[in-house]
Model the fold of this input.
Amino acid sequence: MSLRELARVVQTSEVTVRRDVRALEAEGLLDRRHGGAVLPGGFTRESGFPQKSHLATAEKTAIADLAAGLVEEGEAIVVGAGTTTQELARRLARVPGLTVVTNSLLVAQALAHANRVEVVMTGGTLRGSNYALVGSGAEQSLQGLRVSKAFLSGSGLTAERGLSTSNMLSASVDRALVQAAAEVVVLADHTKLGTDTMFQTVPTDLITRLVTDEPPPHDDRAATELQALADQGVQIAVAGASGNPGGEQVPATRRAPLPGPRRGHMPLRSGAGMGEPTGAERGRVADLRRR
Done:
């Protein structure tokens, strides 16, 4: 859509819409183009690390906090590449006796000074866009490996295809990580729910658990996808993105399955950071997001 059309729809100036579009792009909800905006993604598009690191940061932090609680002292796990798994690694530094196998330089860096954690890196060729080791060297180094859990992220997650990514080499290494693990835990914020990308990494029937955040009230696609994943046997853990503004202690997790009065309905709320936007500017952004 052109900026002119967007301004007409939300009844404001093009200057204001341009600022709002810039804010929505920072959230990964659309891509700016000359004179307008388009829906994000496509099957082959992949954002680089600098862009990903600024998207859904509060949600990723909450997801990492919850996922870290799934790791026990003395376990051996694999952790894939990604900004959410990087957040997880920062929290794993406090788990004594842990062994972490990873192809991610960012994960290894987060654990580099953890005295009680052993880090094992795969071989492979460095992929600079996400600081991950990929290729045949990475895959061969994982042969014969067996660990308790694999923690993976990706570009999209649907009930139909499972976890997917936009890069063939990354997908191939992620599949090798999955084969090494007894359980597969996917870390994906709500913006990835319902998004399908080019290369499947983990089919739905191999996903043991999904750790995600609460979809906003208007995000029917994410809520429906969560219900569909639960219907297929995926255990769902939902983390709150932030604390209660009123200062009360709010439970950070809610575990599914997610039965509801109708398919796609999320009957419970975390109450954490999910209120309706306030103010004229946030209202415009919310209106654009809904449209």
Remarks:
- The mean pLDDT is 81.
